[in-house]
Every structure is written in C-alpha cells, then in structure tokens.
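Why does residue order matter? Because the sequence determines the fold. Keep that principle in mind as you read this record.
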Amino acid sequence: MKALGYIGAFLGGAVAGAALGVLLAPEAGENTRNKLTDAVKDFCDKHDIKLSRKQVEELVDEVQDADIA
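Structure:
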C-alpha cells in the first residue's frame, strides 16, 4: 500500500511538471491539451497504470483548472 502512495505522488508530480511545461509553451490550447493528454497516457502505459482515455482527459482538465499561484 505504501508503494501505491509513492507511485501516486510520483504520478502527480510528473503530471504537474508536464502540465506546467506544456501550458507555458507558446502553442495553441488544443495542441497543448492533446500533447499533455498523450504524455499522461504514455506515462500510465509505461508504468502499467490503468486509466481510460476519459480519465486521463479529466485529469488533464483538473490540472489545467488548478490555481497554480
């Protein structure tokens, strides 16, 4: 159970870092969302984390809507 917490923390950090990097890049919003969604999906696939495309998109939405200030 402790390992799951570490994986969750790592996943959260990776998503947040990727989101900030991609969101601050000078590119169109739809392209940015697609890149971020693909990056999260690739990470989940690489680490055998089972999330549907819809769950990944919802996670991207939550990260995008987060107050980063």
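The chain has one domain: 2-65.
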